[in-house]
Design goal:
By secondary structure, the protein is α+β, with helices and mostly antiparallel strands. Helices cover 44% and strands 17% of the residues.
């Protein structure tokens, strides 16, 4: 199984100049190849392959005005064409939108294959660098694993990261007998079927006013000035802090759930559709439900756990977990309700219990748990009661 190990490093002034040139050249090659491929299709209906575009790099190095492409590693430039090819494959497979041009202020990245970097005694040399990188080894690489490729990334806040892609064998966690259902929310990020509620850090809401203040200062600066660059870095660093806070919470939560439970039941929410509600879009994005689900998927695959996804139309909140009665309406402002059987339910805890039960049905019967509509039930009853004239 392939797994990436990411570290932060602090380049010297000479290394940073070379790396910034490499990132800039990769961005230039990507954008020029994208423009050339789009123009070739719209005008001549000809599709340029990745191999055709890689051959153009040699010609670009000989052109006047772009001879500076020779100063960086050719491997990194070729990998940028491969990245564009992957972006087109994702677009044709309807996994992503049409590729867009890369911006300079958004940072950037470049990739190196196995032949263009070297690791020896904990030191890493990249192509055309004379000294090793000053890497903060927060965790060791797997023993005996040989990285196949590495990627260098410059964040918009000016931080440098390097990640190594290795093929490793991940051992499964010891077996446990507990199962859990999760109901995702905004006030509480996750409510477990055990009754526990995981608080939502609300990283964006916490820094919202400070971020607006810094963005206002950025908008007032003259474009191209040094003061504007300073203001842009302040905004980018605050965005980085918000992102790091959110990812830290999600990683800790998902790792704990995978370690403690044999199976995890989760509702398949239509996050993209829910973001169309302008009143809740900011809070939903801040909660990052899609990223939480993605982390649970690959961690369950790594460690031998089972993730059960319940259909999004399953009425988990309106169904009584004690008797199965389904209420007709249950507005969002009602957080507790009493069933006809006398059971008093907390809305989120009740939904988590129903998701856990529905996840067991999904595991036993396969498919999804989706209730029939009232119209469909009426049609079935009418067909059964109507007399036969044959």
């Amino acid at each position: 199984m392939q797994r990436a190990y990411r570290y932060r490093f602090y380049p010297t002034s000479e290394q940073e100049i070379l790396l910034r040139k490499t990132v800039g050249c990769c961005r230039f090659v990507y954008n020029r190849a994208l423009a050339m491929r789009s123009e070739s299709w719209t005008q001549n209906k000809e599709r340029l392959s990745g191999f055709d575009l890689q051959k153009r790099i040699t010609l670009w190095k000989k052109e006047e005005g772009t001879e500076w492409l020779k100063e960086v590693s050719s491997v990194a430039l070729q990998q940028s064409i491969n990245n564009l090819e992957v972006a087109y494959q994702n677009f044709f497979a309807k996994r992503a939108k049409y590729p867009t041009f890369k911006k300079k202020n958004a940072g950037g990245s470049c990739r190196f294959t196995e032949s263009s970097f070297r690791i020896k005694d904990g030191a890493v040399w990249l192509a055309k660098t004379k000294t090793p990188l000053d890497i903060r080894w927060s965790r060791p690489l797997p023993e005996g694993a040989k990285p196949k490729q590495c990627a260098v990334k410059l964040s918009p806040s000016g931080q440098w990261y390097i990640s190594f892609l290795c093929e490793v064998e991940i051992s499964h966690l010891p077996p446990v007998d507990s199962h859990v259902g999760i109901d995702l929310g905004i006030s509480a990020l996750a409510t477990l079927s055990t009754g526990e509620k995981i608080c939502n850090p609300k990283a964006y809401r916490k820094h919202k006013r400070k971020l607006a203040h810094r963005q206002k200062h950025l908008a007032r600066k003259k474009p191209g000035s040094r003061n504007r660059e300073k203001a842009r870095l302040k905004v980018a660093r605050l965005h980085q802090k918000i992102s790091d806070t959110r990812k830290d919470q999600l990683h800790k939560l998902t790792t704990r759930l995978v370690r403690e439970n044999k199976s995890i039941a989760l509702e398949d929410l239509h996050v993209r559709g829910m973001l169309r509600n302008h009143c809740l879009a900011g809070s939903i994005s801040d909660a990052s439900w899609g990223e939480l689900k993605r982390m649970l998927e690959y961690k369950c695959e790594w460690y031998g756990r089972e993730l059960r996804v319940v259909d999004r139309w399953f009425p988990s909140s309106k169904t009584c977990s004690a008797c199965g009665h389904v209420v007709e309406k249950l507005p969002l402002n009602i957080r507790e309700w009493t069933c006809t059987c006398g059971a008093v339910h907390d809305r989120d805890v009740n939904a988590a219990k129903n998701i856990l039960a529905a996840g067991a049905v999904v595991n036993a019967c396969g498919g999804t748990v989706r209730p029939k509509s009232v119209k469909a039930r009426r049609q079935v009853s009418v067909k059964q009661e109507s007399p036969s004239f044959r």
